[in-house]
Specification:
alpha+beta, 11-stranded antiparallel β-sheet, 5 helices, 11 strands, 17% helix, globular
Length: 252
C-alpha cells in the first residue's frame, strides 16, 4: 500500500463529543486529533506499538495550538486531515485541518511531538526511528512558532484535582485531552456561556500520574485588552509546573 503524506478521515460529531451548548468540546477536538495522528503513524509504520517494539519508546505530545474558526455541532459530519513536517533533531511536528461538507475550514492546528524512552525517560533523536516516508507536505496549517507561554499578571488559584485511573492513557499518565477538560473547568458556566474560544495553546511540561494532585491557577489580567486567559497546573506535591496554556476568547 502506497504511503500517504496527508491522511484524511471523516467523522460525525456524536452526542458524547459535545458540551451543553451542543458544540464540539475542546477535549473532543484534541481526542480527534490524537486519533487521526495515531492512525497516520500506523499507516507510516510508526505506530505506538512499532516505536515501543523497535526502540522501547512512546509518542509524547509536548505542545499544540488549535485555532477555532467555528466549532462543529452535534451530528455534523466533518473531514479531518493531518500531515507531518520534516523531523527536527528531537521534534516531530504535525499539522491538522478540519473542514465541513462544503470544504470550509472549521479548525486548524499545529503540534509538536517527541519520542521518549519508556525506561530512561529520555528523549530520543528523530533519526532513531528512520523509516521510508513519503514526500512531506510543505503547507502549514498555521504559520507560527510554538513558544513558551507566560502569564501577564499573577495567576490566582481556582481549584485542585486528584488524577484518577480514568484520566490516564496508554502511556500511564494524564492524557493530553484530559488537561483540556480541566482547563475548561477553570471557567464558571456563566463565563463559558458568554464567550467564544478563538484559540487554545497547551504546553505539556511534566507528566502527571495517578494519585498526583494538580492545583490550577488562572490569570485573566490580559482579558480586557488582548482577550487572553492564562491557565496553568502545578503539582501540589512539589510545586512543579505540569502544564501552561493560553486561550484567546471573545465575548458573545
Amino acid at each position: 500500500m502506497e504511503k500517504r503524506a496527508v491522511y484524511t478521515n471523516t467523522y460525525r460529531i456524536a452526542l458524547g463529543d459535545v458540551d451543553f451548548l451542543k458544540s464540539m468540546k475542546l477535549s473532543a477536538v484534541f481526542n480527534a486529533f490524537q486519533e487521526i495522528a495515531s492512525r497516520h503513524a500506523d499507516h507510516l509504520g510508526l505506530s505506538i506499538q512499532a516505536v515501543e517494539l523497535k526502540r522501547n519508546a512512546a509518542w509524547i505530545l509536548t505542545r499544540i495550538l488549535v485555532e477555532l474558526l467555528r466549532r462543529p455541532r452535534w451530528n455534523e459530519e466533518i473531514r479531518i486531515e493531518t500531515w507531518p513536517q520534516p523531523p527536527k533533531k528531537y521534534e516531530f511536528e504535525r499539522d491538522y485541518a478540519v473542514m465541513d461538507n462544503e470544504g470550509n475550514v472549521l479548525l486548524r492546528a499545529v503540534s509538536t511531538w517527541v519520542l521518549l524512552d519508556i525506561d530512561k525517560r529520555e528523549l530520543l533523536k528523530s533519526d532513531s526511528v528512520a523509516i521510508d516516508l513519503p514526500a512531506f507536505e510543505t503547507k502549514r496549517a498555521i504559520l507560527c512558532k510554538l513558544g513558551k507561554i507566560k502569564p501577564s499578571g499573577t495567576p490566582e488559584p481556582v481549584y485542585k484535582r486528584v488524577i484518577g485511573i480514568s484520566d490516564i492513557d496508554v502511556n500511564g499518565h494524564l492524557n493530553n485531552s484530559k488537561y483540556v477538560d480541566f482547563i475548561v473547568d477553570c471557567f464558571s458556566i456563566e463565563q463559558y456561556r458568554s464567550c467564544r474560544v478563538k484559540s487554545i495553546q497547551v504546553n505539556y511540561v511534566q507528566e502527571a500520574l495517578p494519585g498526583d494532585t494538580i492545583s490550577f491557577f488562572r490569570d485573566a489580567s490580559a482579558l480586557a485588552e488582548a482577550g487572553l486567559i492564562y491557565i496553568e497546573g502545578r503539582s501540589e506535591q512539589d510545586g512543579r509546573t505540569i502544564f501552561t496554556s493560553e486561550l484567546e476568547v471573545e465575548a458573545l
